[in-house]
């Protein structure tokens, strides 16, 4: 991944959050406070605005900047969680253009940071339920000899499956957990937006 691809990824995320804002809002209105669409939209628009004049030296720096911007522009749980993920991923990258394996290791560091901050385990009906299967699928594809585009495409499908698999779960973290068993039967908004983040990576990588 070079800086141009990282920029394309971020732009594709912003486009996806724009296209899917209403859906994310609807999902969060069922089991939360109906702000997830607006939060993600605001956050990635702020990221886009910083990108106009920002000239990072590395993908590492760029992702750290994405994370800091999300933290400072998004209220709600998702801002700090996504922000921390991008910051941690950026910090884990080398200063040179990362290869697919280095990107995977950095994304794992991002997931670890989310889990440390939010204390969510797999099955708690959070973004972790899309993030973790996405990285496992990414890793499997690399092991099978696939390139970044193939790994990202497979990760995106696994994240979508993971998000759908949150429907029958009871939320144990975040606002949705206040509903107890009434959170069952609805797809988690954060897992859904995480699938969009991986879908955007697949789109950007495929355009190479
Ligand atoms: P808020 O819950 O503050 O309104 P958002 O609506 O933007 O923030 O984001 C909600 C999403 O954040 C949830 O759908 C869930 O995926 C994710 N989330 C909430 N709490 C946690 C947590 N402790 N760990 C991981 N993800 C979480
Ligand atoms: Mg919310």
Automatic annotation (TrEMBL):
The gene is dhaL. It comes from Kitasatospora herbaricolor. Transmembrane segments: none annotated. Keywords: Kinase, Transferase. This is Dihydroxyacetone kinase subunit DhaL. Pfam families: Dak2 (PF02734). Signal peptide: none annotated. The lineage of its organism: Bacteria, Bacillati, Actinomycetota, Actinomycetes, Kitasatosporales. Residues 4-203 form the DhaL domain. GO terms for molecular function: kinase activity.
